[in-house]
Structure formats: structure tokens, C-alpha cells
Amino acid sequence: MRWEDVTGLALESLRLHRMRTGLTVLAVAIGATAVLLLTTLGDAAKGYVVNQFASVGTNLVMISPGRTETAGLGAAISGSTRNLTIDDCEAILRRSPSVKRVAPFSLGSAAITCGGRSRDVFVIGTTSSYQEIRSLGLAAGSFLPPGDPRRGERVAVIGFKLKRELFGSENALGKAIRIAEAQFRVIGLLEPKGQTMGMDFDDVAIIPVATALRIFNQSSLFRISVQARDAASIPLAVEEARGVLIDRHREEDFTVITQDAMLKSFRSIIDALTVALAAIAAISLAVAGIGIMNVMLVSVSERVPEIGLLKALGARPRQITALFLAEAVLLSGVGAIAGLGAGYILATIAARMFPALPLIPSVMWMGIVMALSISLGAIFGLIPARRAAGLAPADALRGRR
């Protein structure tokens, strides 16, 4: 019996039992669709995080007050013995050749009022360098003025949403607003940017860092943002900034985190979650494989005389095994193709509904789903196939199992 004959007989058997074949293919398709959609969602989450980091800026190093370590059972211990100051920022920029820009960063929350309208938003205190570090575009006006960061002028740059809520369609430039009961003049409007790493730049006010520290009664910066000259300079910039601060503080009482390290951590976490989701979804494929085994056992029981006739005509046990394995693989293969097609269509529809998520099915995961489906079909079809191959020709012709 040639391989063409084996395939033809397998297809003929599946065609004669359309309902049974259709339901089995549907079970495999549902499992394949689930695996593809969940892995696509995991990859989309990773892509979204990468895009968020890219929108923050490039070649960044963040320095926070307090030394953070991981001890014993993974508990985080953080302590601070000295504040991060504007002087620290200037020292890093002055004494670190690998550093391109440095921006102090303070953060507070306050009610911003104008003409009877009020809105509670985050208020960022920083300098003119922050615009380049965070790649902030301006829709109108100008950013914070350069110069001595200790001057503490009463000027503000506001986000798109905040401008709309306070001023509507009016021109906001030059208008007065009150932040934490202090009066400021609006000098710039940010381009719409949306949320970036938890910060909505459309609903934020940016003021000079010295002013922010004063009105929020803060003695330490929330963070220092350091931008290296290029990607290759990041490790050297980290060491230079660390050396400057240790020299000034007499100890390492701060935490340095690079943008690449944060991104790597997020990627590893999301990759692990994606694999876990794929494994959970693969359970449905395993259930479908059990369904294939059940269908094949029924098929063997129904076709005992046919098996006996094939053996009487000279078919070898391995050919009988191949016949029933071909049926199982065809069921799982067709189901996987249908499931991948349905998953791709659903992912495309979801991508149009949620454009912020890069929902693009991975060719790698599609290959894995296809290989897994066919492998499960072969594995679960092996027991019925071997049972069929083990039937004695004479007993099979009499319908005995």
C-alpha cells in the first residue's frame, strides 16, 4: 500500500463521517485560536512597553534618592541619608564627559485654577533640558527658559488636555493661572503626547524646579534624569555619575537605574507571562487531542472488518498504523490551520479596535501552534493506530476485536 493510498483512505474515512470530523476539527481550532490570541496579546504587551520606553527618550539613566537593594527573600530595602539636589545635577553635568544632558525632576500634585475653573493635576519641576531628554514637542509658545535653575521664575508649560479644560478654545499663552495658591504665567503648550510610563503629559503642568521645590516644601529631588551622549556611552555615564555623587555624598546613598535595564526586566517578565498564558491555552489543545484519540478509537471499532481485509490483502502493521495516524494528523492539522486563520482574523479586528496595542500574530508562535497541534494529534492517535495494527487478520474479518 503506497503513501498515496494511505492518504486517500484517510481522507475518505474523514469524509464519510462529516459531523464527527467537523466537531473534532472545531475542538482543535478553538485550542489553536486560544494559544495564538494569548501569545499575540503577550507580544503586544511587550511591544507596547518597548514603545512606551522609546517615547520616554533615549540613552537615559535615572538616579533616585535612597539606596535600594534586594535582600534574603527578595524584600526591597530602601533608605536615604542625603537629598538629591540641584547642585548634584550641575556637578554630574560638569564632571561627567559621557553625559550629554542632566535634568532635575521634582513631582507634586496641586489644584490649578483659572477664571473659576479648577483641576487637580501632577506638577513637574524641572529645567529646560527636560524637553530634549523626554522628547517633548511644543504646540505653541516656548519651554522653560534656560539659565540658572535656582531662579525659580513663575512660568508654566501646560499639557493639551489641561489647556482645554482651563481655557477652552481661548489662547492660553500669557494668561495667568494659580498653582498651589501661587500665580504663574503660561508660556508654552505641549503637543498632545498622551500617557508615557504612567504620566499623562496632556494633563500636566511643568514649572521651574526651584519654584516647585519651594511651593511643595520639598528638600530633595524626586529623581535626576541623565542622558548619555550615545548608547555606547551609557555604562561610562553611569560610572561617572555614580562617582560624582559618591564623592559629594561620601557614600552611595542613591539608586541608579538605566533605561535598558528597566526595559530588559519588563521584557523578561512579559516573556514569562506569555509562555505561561500559552501553556494554559495549550490545555485546550490537549483536551482536543484526547477528543481525537476518542474519535480514532471509535473509528477503529467501526472498521475492524476493513482492517482485516487490508491485512488479508497484504497490508503490513506499520501501514495500518500509518493509516490511522494519517487520519489523526489530518484532523489536528486542518484544525490548527482553521484555528490560526480564525486567530489571525480576530487579532486583526482587535488591532483596529485598540490601535495602541501592536496586535500582530507572530510567525514563530504560529509555527509553534501548528507543530504542537500536529504533534498532539500524532501522539493521541498512536494508541488507536497501534490497536488497529495489532488486530489478527482472521479475527478482524469476522468482526472480532
Task: Provide structural commentary.
It contains 12 helices and 14 strands. It is an alpha+beta fold and 401 residues long. It has 2 domains: 3-53 and 264-397, no CATH class; 104-223, no CATH class. The strands form 3 sheets. It has a 6-stranded mixed barrel, surrounded by 4 helices. Strands 2-3 form a two-stranded antiparallel ribbon. Strands 10-11 form a two-stranded antiparallel ribbon.
| Overall domain count | 2
Mean pLDDT, rounded to whole units?
A: 83
Low-confidence stretches: 70-80
- Encode the helix/strand succession as letters: HHEEEHEEHEEHEEEEEHEHEHHHHH
Please state the CA-atom Rg, rounded to the nearest Å.
33 Å
The count of strands amounts to 14
Multimer state: single chain
Supply database-style keywords.
six-stranded mixed β-barrel, 401 residues, single chain, alpha+beta, 55% helix
Give a topology summary.
Layout: H1 3-16, H2 18-56, E1 60-65, E2 67-71, E3 75-79, H3 86-95, E4 99-114, E5 117-126, H4 129-133, E6 138-141, E7 155-158, H5 160-167, E8 176-179, E9 182-190, E10 195-196, E11 199-200, E12 204-208, H6 209-215, E13 223-228, H7 234-249, E14 254-258, H8 259-302, H9 304-312, H10 317-353, H11 363-389, H12 393-397
Parallel strand pairs: 5-12, 7-9
Antiparallel strand pairs: 1-13, 1-14, 2-3, 4-5, 4-8, 4-13, 6-9, 7-12, 8-9, 10-11
